Structures are given as structure tokens and as C-alpha cells.
Amino acid sequence: MASALREPLRVAVMVSGRGSNLQALLNSADAPDSPASIGLVVSNVPNVQALERAKVAGIRTEVVPHRDFDSREAFEREMSDVLESASPDIICQAGFMRILTPWFIERWNGRLINIHPSLLPAFPGLKTHERALEAGVRVHGCTVHMVRSEVDSGPIIGQAAVPVLPNDDPDSLAERVLQAEHRLYPTCLKLIAEGKVQIGSDSVFLATDLCDERQVLLNPAAV
Ligand code: GAR
Question: Which of 14, 50, 84, 209 has minimal Cβ neighbours within 10 Å of its Cβ?
């Protein structure tokens, strides 16, 4: 079916901070022919920039402060109830910095995706750019993946690679990766909204001609 005939994919976004990835998703969803529509932005931290970005875009915001709850389960049940109110087809974690329990992941199984600042399965967890520099890799990047209960695991939807340059520090490398994140996340969400992403138990099949065998990142470049 042509995407123009589909209902837009209903998207909710979970955030915790700056929200630059949220902004990239908002910008992309703002296009007149966008196959995705963001209906809710929910943060576990009050007063963060991501909430401001959503308000400027006219998107409903909610705050579920994890500190107000006695247990992780109670926090997640409230978060889940808030999400349910938006009936999302897909939930994007965009800089959402709480580890989720298997209960929450099971509740939203198949609908929960995340962006992580490394080429998974390399460098799961925190401080990915520092660790990439320490490891001496020449290529680093970011990954959009389905969320599974093991942290930063799950079938990979898309990845973007950037070179590591000789004078990089964690900040310069993070900035280069972040620019790639802002291109990758809307691209992946659009493919999902167009029905071009088929999720298996361990991997994802992409029904798209955007995968190009001629694309190669050599670092250092060929001489
Ligand atoms: C992004 O780099 C994102 O990949 C990372 O946090 C940053 C959020 O920036 N996420 C994680 O580390 C999740 N494990 P943003 O709030 O400006 O999008």
C-alpha cells in the first residue's frame, strides 16, 4: 500500500534531557508528507530542554519523575499508563537514561526502539566516546535498535558510522556522532512508518533499496 494511503504512525517519545534527537524527530515529522506523527513526549526528569522543544512544536508533554516513586515498578506502571493514553504504535527512546525492567519491555514488546551512541554490539552502556577513543577504533557511530531486556541489545534497525580523527577528544567525537544520530533516527522511524522494517526475534529485515553495497567508510581514506 502506498504510504500516502496509510494512517500516520502514532509515535511517543521518551526523553530525559537535552532532546536534540527529539528535535530531529520533530523536524522530520513536521514535513507535510511525513508517515509518522508524534503525539506525546514524556520525560522522567522535570524541566529539561526536551520538554521545551516539544512545547514549541505544539506536542503534548508529560513528566513522570522517577524520584517520586517508591519502586522502579511503580514508576514504570505510571509511565506505561501515560504512554497508553497516546495509543502509540511506536515508542522512541531519545536520550532516555533510565534502565527499564523486563516487565516494561515486555509490555511494549516490538514497539520500543532506542538510539545508542556507538556501533553496537561495541560499547554498550555509558561513556561510549571515551571508550571508543581508549580502544583506538578508527570508526565509531550510533545504532537504532529494538529494545530488549539486556541493556543496549536488541535487533538492529540502522547504524551510522563516522571516522575517529587523530585529534579527537570525547567531546569532538560525541558531536560528530550526534550529527549522525540526527540523520539516522528519523530515517529509521520513517522506514518503520512506511512498513519497510520487519522485526524478527533476533534481527530486522529491511525492505528498502536504501542499502547500498558501494558505500564504504575508509579511515584513513584510500590513497
Ligand atoms: C544521545 O547521544 C543518545 O544517543 C544518548 O544520549 C544522548 C541524548 O542526547 N543515549 C544514550 O546514551 C542511551 N543509552 P539528546 O537528548 O540531545 O538526544
Answer: 209
